[in-house]
Request: fold
Amino acid sequence: MQPIDLVFRFGGESGEGVISCGEIFAQAAARAGREIYTVRTFPAEIRGGHAVYQVRVGDDLLLSQGDRVDVLVAFNGEGYEKGLPDLRPGGILVCDGGQVTPDPSFDGTAYPIPFTTLARDQVGSLRAKNMVVLGAVAELFDLPREVLFSLVAQRFARKGEEAQEANRRALEAGAAYVRDHVTKQDPYRIGTGPHTGRVVLSGNEAVALGALAAGLTFFAGYPITPASDIMENLVRWLPQVGGRLVQAEDEIAALAMVLGASFGGARAMTATSGPGLSLMVELLGLASAAELPAVVVDVQRAGPSTGMPTKEEQGDLNLAVWGAHGEGPRIVLGATSVADAFQTTVQAFDLAERYQCPVIVLSDQFLGFRKASVAPPPVDEIRPSYRILARRNGAYRRFQLTESGISPAAVPGMVGLQHVITGLEHDEFGRPAYDPARRTQMMAKRARKMALAAQEPGMTRRWGHSEPVLGVLGWGSQEGVIREAVARANREGYRVTALHTRMLWPLPHGEIRAFLRQVKAVLVPEVNFSGQFANLLRTQFTIEPHRLTKSDGLPFRPVDIYEKIKEVYPDGR
Reply:
């Protein structure tokens, strides 16, 4: 059998069940042993507007959403019109035969199926249309029936037997129509694959699991798209390990609670998106000055202001790195994939505790909502670290000047280690101090921690040509799409290498400098308008990189980066 690598897109009206249809299809393919990689986009309104769920299904590791759509599943005319430009030449159209009439110039294979009519006449409810679609697509592309039916039963178990029976009838109505009325004209089948024992996680779920594995005991947050899933998962999971969760009145209160819990010795976290991170700026400064560990996850969305709450953007890098009055040292990490979101969150807690400072983890809408089949996260292998604790030995200096800048900490209840915590500048004991000498000492102390953090190992990943001419520098959730584009360029004879930076502040200067010395030119792709990472690199390394930016709310495709590589590649091949 030919290796499978197919991109399915489900498109239709928000409120028709497009997203749930795509999610169940993706999970069923994963349970059947296939690799999956998903993208979803939908309007901010509860109902109305165009919704899309895209699933790439394959045998091998999938690094991106792919370049073109192989199978377009159109719930309605809008799904057809908006999806058709992305359907590859000769692609497959599965559409509602009662609502969609393919253009006469359409050169692919069309399967018109009366989804709406089947839902109304055979199931008795137009709300069942998405299950009719799911049953038809599963039958058409040989998605194992038993896997699909068991998954749907599990997903809707809480809705009672009547709802379960309606879903079964809807699935069977779609499948039966295909068996009785459709002649298969394409060679594509999903069937069963080799990848067993894997789990399907979203980026937000991976963050929540990583926090638990790192020893999270307190979470405070305020709901905000697209970060709310993190809190919603922790509501169910955190109490099971003895932790506490509070829904705060706003993002400012949420981070204030996190800092209070951290002062008390808890491993504490909050999660938000760009507008919420903006509100947290003053308290991030307090965490830096008071040297309190805290983890803040920012699932970025398109801005400014309310922007596009359900769309993709890597637009908060400037805010995460520079968002402070004065100079408040913090560490900024960028999660790169679903599997990496787990590891990066674990690492964020480790760094926060060891360096006694706030750590911001940058995810985004694309990664937060993306689902992938991954090996079960190694939860049992994680050994959470903890801040260095002081011992009673004379008068306790909470902010003792040390070579590393890291001072032994104490938490309430440690006898003889009482101390003052303040956001004011202070001396080693924590007492407010404004004289020039002490101010300079404390600024230098906090800066030493960041200089040490910049030397942390494993903060970059590299792949590509061993003798490169062009280098691609990236960050965050675009790692996979960059890898795929670079691999294609190398196959075409271009000598390209890529370096992906997991720590965005402080930058891992040693690895980046070594990378820059090897190449003649640098390309920086990022999903924002101005090229924030390129600007940051320019300030630190006095380079002028080529920029590839995107700010339409959607992630890059491999072909976007590949075409830019060809454009900026120096000296021909």
